[in-house]
Amino acid sequence: MSDTHDRFERLNVAPAYQMVADAIEREIIQGRIRPGEPIGTESELVRQFGVNRSTVREGIRVLEQGGLISRDSSRRLFACGPHHNRLASRLSRALVLQEVTFRELYETSMVLELASIEQAVERATEKNIAELSENVAKTEAAIDDPARIAELNSEFHALIAKASQNRVLQLAREPTGLLFFPTTEVICRKVAEGALRMIEANRMMLKAIKARDKKSAILWMRRQVDDWRKGFERTGKTLDEAVDKSYLRAATR
Amino acid sequence: MSDTHDRFERLNVAPAYQMVADAIEREIIQGRIRPGEPIGTESELVRQFGVNRSTVREGIRVLEQGGLISRDSSRRLFACGPHHNRLASRLSRALVLQEVTFRELYETSMVLELASIEQAVERATEKNIAELSENVAKTEAAIDDPARIAELNSEFHALIAKASQNRVLQLAREPTGLLFFPTTEVICRKVAEGALRMIEANRMMLKAIKARDKKSAILWMRRQVDDWRKGFERTGKTLDEAVDKSYLRAATR
DNA sequence: ACCAATTTGTCCGTATGTATG
DNA sequence: TCATACATACGGACAAATTGG
Asked: Which residue on chain A is closest to B110 by alpha carbon?
């Protein structure tokens, strides 16, 4: 052992593939590569970074998975503003793996959906309202198809969030929506008047948004989320059981 | 061209590395590999899947990035219940890339923080309260250090969410917290009484939680988030500008 | 504390399928 | 149609780090 001080700290050198990923990520986040712009071929990156092909490819996988880059039909690399879908379904998966309960889901959804519709009442554009109207019409036409109803209801809530013009809120509620609404199908099948009450609530929410009637909109949203809870319990399950992984299928791709 | 029908559909064959990733992911999601359990060495996987090591490694990168597996200090692979941290910072990044405004952040944070404290008042355990007390004590001791104050305040809110016992809510507020609270440092520097009001609010929230006084707790939380908005505007910025990428550094690792 | 075996990180070269012009 | 460029995948190799005796 030497009795001198270590002159240098240990260099914390990241693996090469990580540095490749970081370097490209930086360019995208800092806006020097805009979404849609090409990244270059693998050989190009090999040349620029001075590392091996395999190394570049590992870095690319990281970024692909992170949703920062993607490949088009011809497999050329380009930057892409990450679609939340991928992130949201990852989040949903994380929730399932943590074995969160339906109660946690219910409580959080209540908060997020109420916030969404409150802001939607204030800010919904004509376009938003048209989209919601179309959704309600489709739902009324699908009255006898539980799967379709559930899907449309899920879309209804996503449209509400969109109408809030608040992208943070939109992103925050997406993972819960992904897990929350698939159960509506089960409920529609088991509870006779379930679909009818759902449609009525959606119709009333749409009406309230048109009239900019915040109070009524919130009331009907609360009622619908509560209906979900009651319907859920009526299927014989308890709120304190963990969200099953089977609800993931609908969420992943 | 033959005039016969195609007998077979085109096989949707995923790349090998993707199949490797999917196969391992399935095992984890289905619970056949529990969090903490080892996955095996790369050579092991090479043998089992019958593919090249480079291919295995690409698959591993995907899962690592997805937070499903990780390497411990000795770089051995093991499954891990995905820590939200990684997902949350990814979400934050997505928000920045979408150039969301501080207003969107503010509004959503208000909703999520209020919900957190409301549930925290109902359910905080002795342990939660002890953690919060310690945080408040540390904050009082750091009164002259804006960076430390901001960090501790961020932790305070995370602890509140933890005390809500609602993991869905916890996960939902994390990305916004990551972006929201770093700005408190700037505010503490620019607004003289900022730190003091922040500490007072935290102290009062803690007190309200101890007393199970929901009304007071919510009041002080609302006041603190509002203070944030006022302080933010006092720094000369407007709520309608986009959240800057500079706020990301604090968020990533 | 040393050594041998294992494992990871990285690299090289090559073959094959596919998309584009 | 053909040629070219490129992505995917493979086999093999070596140095550094880690493990376990």
From this structure: A115
For residues B133-138, give the mean pLDDT: 95
DSSP state of A8: S
β-strand partners of B79: B69
Cα(B199)–Cα(A107) distance, integer angstroms = 29
Q: How many angstroms separate the CA atoms of A253 and B47, rounded?
A: 30
Tokens 């925050």 appear where?
A: A172
Return d(Cα A122, Cα A23) in angstroms, integer: 42
pLDDT of residue B252 exceeding 50, the answer is no
The model's pLDDT over B185-220, given as tens digits with 9 standing for 90+, comes to 888 888 778 888 899 999 999 999 999 999 999 999
Are B108 and A169 within 8 A, CB to CB?
yes
Taking CB atoms and an 8 Å limit, are A111 and B107 in contact across chains? no
User: What are the residues facing A154 on neighbouring strands?
Assistant: none
Are B160 and B131 within 8 A, CB to CB? Answer: no
Mean pLDDT of A168-179: 91
The per-residue b/e assignment along B147-165, b for 16 or more CB within 10 angstroms, e otherwise, is ebbbbbbbbbbbbbbbbbb
* Separation CA B195–CA A23 (nearest Å): 37
Helix (H), strand (E) at residue A140: helix A126-141
Please list every residue in chain A whose beta carbon sits closer than 8 Å to the beta carbon of residue B30.
Answer: 245
- In whole angstroms, C17 C1' to A170 CA is 42
Distance B18 CA to D3 C1' (A): 31
- H, E, C per residue of chain B: CCCCCCCCCCCCCCCHHHHHHHHHHHHHHCCCCCCCCECCCHHHHHHHHCCCHHHHHHHHHHHHHHCCEEECCCCCEEECCCCHHHHHHHHHHHHHHCCCEHHHHHHHHHHHHHHHHHHHHHHCCHHHHHHHHHHHHHHHHCCCCHHHHHHHHHHHHHHHHHHCCCHHHHHHHHHHHHHHCHHHHHHHHHCCCHHHHHHHHHHHHHHHHHCCCHHHHHHHHHHHHHHHHHHHHHCCCCCCCECCHHHHCCCCC
What pTM, to 2 d.p., does this model score? 0.82
DSSP structural state of residue A70: E
